[in-house]
Amino acid sequence: MSIIKKDYVIKNQYSRPGTIRKVTKAIILHYTANKGGTAKNHADFFDGTDGGAYRYAGAQVFVDRIESLAIMPFGEVAYQANEAACRIAKLKGVLGNYAGNANVTTIGVEMCIEKDGSISTETFNRTVDTVVELCKLYDLNESDLYRHYDVTGKNCPAPWVARPSDFKRFKNEVARKLKGDTTSNKFYTYAPDHIISLVEIGLYKDVKLKEPIKRYAKGTHLTITGIAYDGKTPRLKTAKGFISANKKYVKGYHDYIGTIKVLVDDLNFYDTKRWNNPSGQVDKNTVLTVVKKVDDMYLLKSGNYITASNKYVQFSKK
Question: How many CA atoms lie within 13 A of 180 on its CB side?
C-alpha cells in the first residue's frame, strides 16, 4: 500500500504544466519555508488556473507530520529545482525547450515545517518512507538523493544546509530501509543529544552490555555522546559507558536552551552567522526555539541565526 496519497492539482502553466518527463535520475529534497503550512495547504495553494498566485513553482510531493500528498503524477515536470544553473552534470536534462534542466530528470519532495521553522521528527520519518517508496519505484538509492542546495545553491532545505549531518542521517535511514533493515524502527540509529529513561535501565562498560556498572531509575535524564554497534545492534554512548538504544526503554530528544519572542516588526534573520544580506524577516510576537547563543546571535532550531539583543528579542529559558 502506497504511503503517498493523490491530491492532483488542475493542470496550469504555473504549477502543473503537464509535460511528461522521460527519465528519473534523482530525488531532490526541499522544505516549504512556509511556517506551520501543511501538505494539504500547499496542494490547495497550487491548485486552480492561477497555479498558486501565478508562481512558476511546485513539486511532485508534499509531506507533513500526518500525510504525504502527490499534487501531480510523478512522471510530470514540476518547477522545483531550476531557478539557477544545475551544478550536477548528470541531472542536466533536455526536453523540448528545457535545456540543461534538472526539472526534467528529477522528482521534487517538499517537507513542510513547523511554526518554529524546524522539520518535525514525524515529518522527517514520513519523508524517509516517501523517498524509500519512490526509490523502489524508479530503481534509485541513497546516492541519488540531493538537497535543492546541492543542485542550484539555494538555501533549501535550510535546516539541512545549516546542519549537513541531518541530511546524512536522512540518507542513512533511507539506505537502511531500502536494504530491508528495520533496526531504526526499534532502535535509535543516530545519537540524540539527550535521553530520558522510560523504564529502569542499566549502564555498562562494554558495547555488548555484559559488564554492568549501575542502574538508572525510570525518568533519569542522560546526555548522549555518540553511538556504537554490537554487530547490527546500536547502543548509545554516555561519558561513563553504554546504554540501550531501544525505543521501548529510552526516549531521545535534541537539546535547546529556550525560546525567544520577537519584540519588533520585520526582524532580520540569517542562514549563516553574519549581519549583512538577511535571508528573511519575522513578524513581531513570533516565538522561535533557540538551540544556543553564539556570541551576539542566537542559533535557532530552524538552523537560522538572529540577533540576541534584548532590544529586539525576549529570551525565556526552557
Answer: 0
